[in-house]
Fold these 3 entries.
Entry 1:
Amino acid sequence: MLSEPEPRIAPPLGVLREVERVSQRTWAAEAVRRDPDYFTRLQQQQAPEYLWIGCSDSRVPANEIVGLAPGELFVHRNVANVVVHTDLNCLSALQYAIDVLGVKHVIVTGHYGCGGVRAAFDDARLGLIDNWLRHVEDVKHRHEGELVALSKERAVDRLCELNVIEQARHVCETTIVQDAWARGMPVTVHGWIYGLSDGRLRQLGFTAAHAGDVDPAYRASLLSVTA
Ligand SMILES: [Zn+2]
């Protein structure tokens, strides 16, 4: 006689329901208590000035880190905050943010202790993700001369910074940003890094507001050694 199979997803689903119940009760109620029109206003429009391109890491929640409310920060996240010239997901977020929402600042934010960057540094074999992290490994090879002179921990931290600088440059090289600059739109691209150990955001010296800024910003940021 066949017996009923055990419901395999019951425990995780239970946890999810509890998270949903508690977060809804506390976060939504608190938002309305502070501002009775909060959700009505949010529903009507979003007018963010910033696009955040960051890592998917659960310890790097974009809005909380910069202290911006929902509606104020447009967000794209992927493992190791990579900007690939042919990634339609990232490019679409960038195009929508600039051309439709009119964001004025694009901020590529990496973080120290990034598991994706460490895996690329170690040439780890984790599965499909290895192909994505190959882009970070390319950054490592481009800066091999600098990285070999550092201890392992400092080298991984430095690769986290170098990865931000390279990806910020990639943002500048997209047709979306190049065309926006050609039209005279005020779009500035930044490279920042977040410290998991102290909660601080640091600028990496990459700030480009015109096509002519990109090379000087790239060179200046490479010289700003902070790791
Ligand atoms: Zn990460």
Entry 2:
Amino acid sequence: MEELVSQAVQTPLERADCPLPEELRAYAEEQLDAAQALQIAEHLVLCQRCRRQVAAYGTSESG
Ligand SMILES: [Zn+2]
């Protein structure tokens, strides 16, 4: 009776130090400084959840 466990481990790359949603949005809109953008870019490499979040913010043009 441990079926729920399999669903809990779908995202092993999830990290606790995710940027704020506001920061991710600013990154998607290219409103951050180069240093800040770099930090988030490095985080996105490790965190697919945030990548998808940024993608959701930045899908107004350029498909
Ligand atoms: Zn993240």
Entry 3:
Amino acid sequence: MNKKEDGTDRRDFLQSGLLGTAAAGLAITSTSHVTAQTVPDAAEPEVTNEVDVLVVGGGTAGHVAAIQAGRAGAKTLIVERNSQLGGTTTTGGVSFPGLFDAWGKQVIAGIGWELVKESVELDGGELPNFSRVPQRHWQNQVYTNQFLYAILAEEKCAQAGVEIAFYEFPQTVSKTDGGWQVDCVGFGTKRRVRCKQIIDCTGGAEVVGMLGFPRLREEERQPGSFLFMLGKEHQPGRDLNQRLHRLYVHGADSTNSRTATEANMTGRKSILARVRNEKKRLMHLQPETGFRESYRIQGETLITVNDYTSGRVFDDAISNAFYPVDLHTKTGVRPKPLKPGKVPTIPLSALIPKGSRNIIVAGRCVSSDRLANSGLRVQASCMGMGQAAGVAATLAAKAGSTPLEVPLAEIHSLLREHGQIIPGKA
Ligand SMILES: Cc1cc2nc3c(=O)[nH]c(=O)nc-3n(C[C@H](O)[C@H](O)[C@H](O)COP(=O)(O)OP(=O)(O)OC[C@H]3O[C@@H](n4cnc5c(N)ncnc54)[C@H](O)[C@@H]3O)c2cc1C
């Protein structure tokens, strides 16, 4: 006998149980629990930070800069206006960073490589063999899982003692005796930051712009891209067959919230039209447009396309870079590979806004002409710049000087200690 006390039998019970679950929705297959720590003074809308280094923008260059500063002993805060670290690598979905190698050997390593390698290994993915020179440059890009990458970046920030402030951005920046006062806003939060050094990793050098230092911008910029997948499942971090569809959004402009809103809505509307026309399911869509180009700083040095393609080793080189000249236009892109053996370098002075003190940039806003920038903007190069900026800002904060006054030998030595390859010595 399998009768229950209320007279129903076990089979009835199981059936009604299943129906009950169906009514609640079968889409959720499991529930687990975790408890967030109570944020001290969460009800208090105004907070203050005193730090050595403030990193603005936690994207491709920014999180590496912050981890480096934290590991080198600087009290570090990173302010990121979105909800996760990684920027274009994660939120933009360009989760195939390149290029860490050139001509059969690795030329960029350090913290960016550590993260990329660890995320691929954790994901059971495959790393390229850098001793092989590929037929096409993109074959040595590293396919990473964007979701894992963002979480690992957070973990490494926490381990380095870096404080993270998501959903916030600077509203005003003013000079103080010892550096800067940066007032940031987020929803329900006003944050006053006093710092010795700023690292601007916003992609378009937004803090540099707020301070009134000159920036460069083209009348017509490269298109942005929305990455998505129609009709076929997308497997993050897997091989070329799993690559995403790319929608060029011409005129995409990351200058401010209004222009970025326009780019996002234009892209999504076009993808909706494709879904309707092609009658395919939308299987993957990044939350925002990836922007290739906006502002670049006018730095103490400007890297020209000739410097870039000739593989000039600058006297104050702090990082290598490697990628073809890669300018996207209305008619697509025709990458111009570098000549065999050439490895471009990035000088410290191209990260310093002209005439500035106590501020350094890293990422695609590096001081460069447009064609040089089309190669310099790629992710391994941005990560290399981020690490160098983290070192230079930390040493400047400790010495009470400015990044350009830090002896180059000290920058190289600390970079080497943290696993980076120094130009000319790879
Ligand atoms: C569609 C596309 C395809 C690409 N393909 C490749 C490729 O195949 N291989 C490759 O290596 N590279 C590729 N790139 C280039 C590369 O991905 C980017 O140039 C690089 O990631 C830029 O890094 P970044 O750190 O300068 O900026 P981002 O990674 O964009 O980071 C900027 C961060 O700053 C935040 N931010 C901005 N303003 C503020 C503010 N005021 N306050 C707080 N936070 C702010 C943003 O939210 C973001 O997180 C591609 C780029 C695009 C868009």
